[in-house]
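This part of the workshop introduces the protein records we will be handling. A learned vocabulary of local backbone shapes supplies the integers on the structure line. Getting from the letters to the tokens is the skill we practise here. As an example, a complete record with its sequence and its structure tokens follows.
=====
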Amino acid sequence: MLEEMRIRGLGVIADAVLELGPGLTVITGETGAGKTMVVTGLGLLFGGRADSGVVRPGVDRAWVEGRLALGPDDVATRRALEAGAELDDGALLLARSLSGEGRSRAYVGGRSVPAAVLAELAESSLAVHGQSDQSRLLRPSHQREALDRYAGDPVARPLGRYAAGYSELRDLEAELAALRERAREREQEADLLRFGLEEIEALDPQPGEELALAEEEDRLGHADTLRAAASTAHEALLRDSDATASEGQDATALVAAARASLESAGAHDRELEALSRRVAEVGYLLTDVAGDLASYVAGLEVDPARLDVVAQRRGVLMRLIRKYGAAAGTVDEVLAWSARAAARLLMLDGAEDRVTELATRRTALVVQLAALGGQVSAARSAAAKRFAEAVTAELPALAMRDATVTVAVSQTVAGDLVPWLEVGERRLAFGSHGLDDVEMLLRPHKGAPARALQRGASGGELSRVMLAVEVVLAGGDPVPTLVFDEVDAGVGGRAAVEVGSRLAALARTAQVLVVTHLPQVAAFADQHLVVRKASDGAVTSSGVTRLDETGRLQELSRMLAGLEESEAAQAHAQELLAVARAAKAV
């Protein structure tokens, strides 16, 4: 139960405290006084959308604070404790602030929390029924939602599975349509990929091959130059044994002479001995290099045929690189393209398999949805009779004694251009909500035909039917606090008295807050709060006052005749209060 709420800087309300209690609390006031701000404050306090436009001009931030009494085992208590909140003598302190720039902050039990936590608390603590519900009730979709709320788990469970399957079916059909629409494009792409892969496979390039071929071509093209250079170097290092003396000594002979000279003298000086060893190492190295040069010359060949083969291979590779390589122009890039193309081709070739797989899954989903849709329809049809009877039972208490409400649950046979499910021997249209069309019909009095609400109900009748629906739904809501925001619009006279009586009866089992403009409803209040507007000529502000018996009499007189001190209005107000007390005593 909501014990107290404080509003600061919200709309015309500068600072107001609402002391609330069990039973029926009514909130009244002149038009424009700020009654709507009370409901807006409740919405903010329980996680509603934050609109910076409701922040009072001249203040930095609007605040709404509340004290919510909870039981130790309440769902809201557990959720608050999970969020790190602390209780104050078993009560939960809630707060919401809103800046003029639209920034919002929420607090639960002294801890800052996301506004969504307040909304979660509202699910088990508060239900708001507004005047806008009256127009929504004219829409078949809202009538279906009302029936589903009343039906509870028998509809909610299969409908939840149905909705998940329906969503999967829509995604599946979108993928199927895309696959089928792009079949030609995929085939063209696959042909290009196959051609490229076959071309690469036929040439069979190897990683780094173009570099090796470039080196081989360069070597073969300059074989004579390489042979001459290597032979000259070999002779300079190590001449053949049959060379004439006039040709001079080679490098190895000169180094050997230097080594011999140093070895003979090195015995007398360590430094010279070290130099002798280094000269010896140079001799060994020159002999090795001379041997390698001899091997190089022997292995070097001049092969014009091989040169042509290498040049042709390089030319083919370069054309392949230009077609399938990237900026660097290497065979490795061609091989990388080949790997990507093979993977893409595998995916494209598997598209038909994917189409078959999706078609099979679609068939299974359709069968599943047909079964679940049938369960939902059966549960709705069973609940529709009970729901209609419950709403009809409320109407006599709302001055519609002979009125009857029926709820029709029907299915539409689908044409060729409409999505359908085969249920039994019928093809039924379906949607995200199932197979059913739900329509509420009203017969306002005996002998009158039952007509759809949107075609046959007057404004007053619609208000009372909507209130009856909300009362029936509220009776099934496991929430301790119910808020009705001017749901009595369009009602007057005896019907207004019956509305007040019904709200008072509902308040015996729940805390009921009602914003009303009807004195007949306000007379049934256990607590009466009035929102009053004051102005100093420059600034207008409103406050909330809890009325005593004298104050109630004056407020009811104002609501009846616009004159608080009118003796006739006060007499009428006293009569209303007496009627209300008598009705509540029954």
Summary: The mean pLDDT is 82. Residues 351-394 form the longest helix (44 residues). Residues 209-329 form one domain. The CA atoms of residues 175 and 247 lie 88 Å apart.
